[in-house]
Amino acid sequence: MASVWEFANPRKFMAVSDRALPWLFTLAGAALAIGLVWGFFFTPDDFRQGSTVKIIYLHVPSAMMAINAWIMMLLASLIWIVRRHHVSALAAKAAAPIGVTFTVIALATGAIWGQPMWGTWWAWDPRLTSFLILFLFYLGYMALWQAIEDPDTAADLTSVLCLVGSVFAVISRYALIFWNQGLHQGATLSLDKEENIADVFYFPLLVCIAGFVLLFIALVFYRTRTEIRARRLYAIGLKERMV
Q1: 191-223 tens-digit pLDDT
Q2: Which is nearest to 216 in space by CA: 114, 73, 88, 109?
Q3: Which residue, 73, 121, 122, 172, shows the most beta carbons closer than 10 Å to its own?
Q4: How far apart are CA 211 and CA 22, in angstroms?
Q5: CA distance 115 to 113
Q6: In this predicted model, what pLDDT tens digit does every residue of 22-60 receive, in sequence order?
């Protein structure tokens, strides 16, 4: 367990991430290229939804990562609150713009998919509504970081906001279980094999999900490195003002 906390050291994190980033970006690019080409060009049309079903290769991974990004931010925020490791707070900050981008992609592709299927671009469905609220929490989280000059105070307040917003991340994931109603379809992927989509769609979707996960990790590493450098510059500037 002690080795895990070594990565809370900025120098250790910078050294490890510097070696890992080329591999992460390469693997992410390869997985996304294979998954999207396979899914869009080498899978058949669905017997009910036709070719519109292929938007699943963008919608499902982006929606999953929008929720999981917030969960990652929650874990990093808890580490900051308990252990006061600056890298964890900066990683949470770095993940927010990536998570909000995934959320926008999920909302946009969901609307594009929903219009021909439901006859409307938007419905106040429990999952859609909670997902929209999660998007607003992302915006509020980023705005709070920008509004507070002292980084430690900003980390404290955004961590609290992250805890509150996690409620809507959970609701977004399990809305169909909490409320057995609404237009949104059931889970695309499930531990129950009978509820999964057909294998012809399932396997390229798994490749796309792997690509989105790898891309998220790579971008978080990249942006966290940027935040660490910005924190160092802030500390240098603070010392100069105090002299």
Answers
A1: 445 556 778 888 999 999 999 999 999 999 999
A2: 73
A3: 73
A4: 14
A5: 6
A6: 999 999 999 999 999 999 998 888 767 777 788 999 999
Residue 171 makes CB contacts below 8 A (sequence gap 6+) with 126, 130, 178
Contacts of 3 (CB under 8 A, 6+ apart): none
The β-bridge partners of 50 are 46
Residues contacting residue 150 through CB under 8 Å, at least 6 positions apart? none
Answer for the pair 207, 35: CB distance below 8 angstroms, yes or no. Answer: yes
CB-based contact 144:161 (threshold 8 Å) = yes
The token duo for 133 is 């609220």
**pTM for the model:** 0.87
**Between 192 and 228, where is the model more confident?**
228
Structural domain boundaries in the chain = 21-179+199-242
